[in-house]
Amino acid sequence: MVAGFVIFLALIFLIGRQKNLFNPVVELTTTFKNVSGLSVGNIVRFSGINVGSVGNIEIVNDTTVRVAMVVEKQVQRFIKSDSRITMGSEGIIGDRILTITQGSVTEPSVKNGDALASIEPVETAAIINSLSVTAGNFEIISDQLAEIMIRINNGEGTIGRLIQDSVVSENINEMIINLRKTSKGLNENMEAAKSNILLRGYFNRKERQAKQDSIEKANQKEEIEKKNGKK
User: Domain map of the chain by residue range?
Assistant: First the structure.
């Protein structure tokens, strides 16, 4: 009987400590559209530390659920009026918990009975649906890329003909060679034109103008650097 009585007192002490029955507390409230499995007694955390528990959950209307939190009074001064309440899980498949974010240093501390703004949780189902859509799109893109590569390997389309058709490749090589020859011929014609007596004056004027423009640009750059240096 004595052992059972001691165990009973220990359980009362542990439960009371978890529910903050023996510590001075303050009550804070917040609202969510969906509490997503949150239950009375779940943990409330601040800065990664357990500071309280969920005291009550009440449905206000079809779009609002009010949650009352019991928080230790000793941490009240650290919780600011612009702090917000977020909902998460303790681990991957653990119980739902509430987390109080850190507010601004300049804001006043919360008072007993204050209501804090909340951040709506992202539903697991929504995440799974989004991943499913992404995976479906990736599968479609993969199939299209595979089809394009098959066509290229079969010599279909412009790229396929360029890769597979040796005649087309040889024609492209000849075209590049002809372009090089044409470019070389133009350079030779320009050199010959510069040596021509009738056109020599024109090219000399163009060369002097180019030098003059280069000198003016250098002077402008030097003036800008001097101004910047003075500033």
Answer: 2-121, 122-157, 165-218
Q: pTM value?
A: 0.48
For 120-142, the pLDDT digits (tens) are 876 655 556 666 777 777 778 88
Q: What is the Cα–Cα distance from 206 to 192, expressed in whole angstroms? A: 16
Residue type, 91: G
CA 40 to chain centre: 34
φ and ψ at residue 113, rounded to 5 degrees: 90, 0
Q: Residues 55-58: contacts with CB within 8 Å, 24+ apart?
A: 55/27
pLDDT digits (tens, 9 = 90+) for 35-94: 878 888 899 999 888 999 998 999 989 889 999 999 998 999 999 999 999 988 876 667
Q: Are strands 84-89 and 117-119 parallel, antiparallel or unpaired?
A: parallel
CA 25 – CA 53 distance, rounded (Å): 10
CA distances from 202 to 98, 195, 205 (A): 84, 11, 5
Among 55, 51, 41, 36, CA closest to 100: 51
